[in-house]
Amino acid sequence: VAMWGPVIDTLLMCTLTGLVLMVTNVWQSGEENGVLLTTQAFQKALPGVGPYLLLAGVLCLSFSSMLGFSYYVVKCGCFLFGQKARLPVLGFYLFTIIVSSVTTMDVIINFLDIAFGLMAIPTILSSILLAPKVNQAAKEYFKKLNQSR
User: Fold this and answer.
1) Which residues of 56-65 are buried (b: 16+ CB within 10 A; e: fewer)?
2) Could you tell me if residue 25 is left (phi over 0), alpha (psi between -120 and 50 degrees) or otherwise beta?
3) Which of 43, 61, 69, 98 has the smallest count of CB within 10 Å of its CB?
4) What's the average pLDDT block by block, 10 residues per block, for the chain (149 residues)?
5) How far is 29 from 116, CA to CA, in rounded Å?
């Protein structure tokens, strides 16, 4: 089920949105950008019903994304902090949704950039710490592989 999200979102919705933007030529006006540009393109491509179709698609994808991410957040929180952390982690997730709904997009994007940058720290540290073990396992694997030939 988790693999269908990127397929529907990336391959279907993003491709269709890009095609609508290109075919209607609203991207050349230079007046609007982002959601306003997309709404304008859908209005031009499908007069009357276009913006409502876009709204329905965005609502479905955003709602399903929030449900899916809540599952992942709870699973990761329980893995890191134990089963007792289930409700506090879910509460924190719901709190972030509320805060995000009243915060400007620039603040949210800056916060996410910082968070993704900080996620590199444990990844780099674990890669450095596990490199000798991976190297040893690779040597053993290739030694056994060469002996079996």
Assistant:
1) ebeeeeeeee
2) left
3) 98
4) 73 87 86 84 91 89 86 93 95 93 93 94 96 96 91
5) 34
